[in-house]
């Protein structure tokens, strides 16, 4: 049994990418995994200050003792808890809408704030990405996937295991009956 963390980064409720996240989570649960989903829109997350204090030796040792939630100098938001959950997960699944052919700003902020993970003894190995967009050409999610693989490349034990793209969906709920929902479920179920 794996610990699976699904991070939904859409700024709007009932979004199409959130529906993909729910199906992936359902598939992973049905396969017997421990699954937690986080909706970033419900969290208070500040921007990274770029100070790199999180990568000092003392802070890395704190992280590896299970104190990762305290490692960032920003103490008044929800990111410390999210960083610890990312650290402890075996599998991380990102779900994002595609805006201007890229991942959501919310997803990028979480990636940047996850910098303390870089020097930690993180658990995650398998990374998944679920995307949705109004455009439906196959190349639409490629820049967002490249952005995520840039992050993954910094973690030598991690790899991108799979992606799902739902094209041609714009308004909340447009994804209903879209074949990508089944793809997301199947991807989660194969973990």
Protein traits:
6 helices; 191 residues; five-stranded parallel beta sheet; globular; alpha/beta; Rossmann fold
Outline the structure in words.
- This protein is α/β, with parallel strands linked by helices and 191 residues long.
- It has a single domain (3-189), classed as Flavodoxin domain (Rossmann fold), CATH 3.40.50.
- The chain is 35% helix and 19% strand.
- It has helices at residues 16-30, 57-67, 79-88, 105-113, 142-152, 179-189, and strands at 3-8, 34-39, 91-97, 126-133, 159-167.
- Strands 2-1-3-4-5 form a five-stranded parallel sheet, sandwiched between helices.
- Helix 1 links the parallel strand 1 (3-8) and strand 2.
- Helix 1 (16-30) packs parallel to helix 6 (179-189).
- It starts with a strand and ends with a helix.
- The mean pLDDT is 93.
Q: How many domains?
A: 1
Number of helices: 6
* Average of the residue pLDDT scores: 93
Question: CATH fold name, please?
Answer: Rossmann fold
Per the principal axes of the C-alpha atoms, what is the gross shape? globular
Q: Find the CATH superfamily.
A: Flavodoxin domain
Strand content: 15-25%
The share of residues in helices is 25-40%
Indicate the low-confidence ranges by residue numbers: none
Top CATH class: Alpha Beta
In short:
By secondary structure, the protein is α/β, with parallel strands linked by helices.
């Amino acid at each position: 049994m794996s610990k699976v963390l699904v991070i939904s980064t859409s700024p709007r409720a009932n979004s199409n990418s959130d529906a993909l996240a729910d199906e992936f989570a359902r598939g992973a649960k049905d396969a017997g995994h421990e699954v937690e989903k986080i909706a970033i829109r419900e969290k208070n997350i500040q921007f990274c200050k770029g100070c790199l204090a999180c990568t000092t030796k003392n802070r890395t040792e704190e992280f590896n003792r299970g104190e990762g939630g305290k490692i960032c100098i920003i103490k008044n938001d929800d990111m410390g808890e999210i960083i610890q959950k990312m650290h402890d997960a075996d599998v991380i699944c990102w779900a994002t809408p595609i805006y201007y052919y890229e991942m959501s700003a919310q997803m990028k902020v979480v990636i940047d704030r996850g910098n303390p993970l870089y020097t930690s003894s993180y658990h995650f190995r398998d990374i998944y990405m679920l995307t949705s967009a109004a455009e439906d050409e196959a190349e639409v999610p490629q820049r967002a996937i490249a952005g995520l693989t840039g992050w993954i490349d910094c973690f030598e034990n991690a790899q991108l295991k799979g992606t799902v793209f739902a094209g041609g969906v714009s308004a909340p709920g447009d994804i209903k009956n879209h074949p990508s929902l089944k793809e997301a479920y199947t991807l989660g179920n194969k973990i």
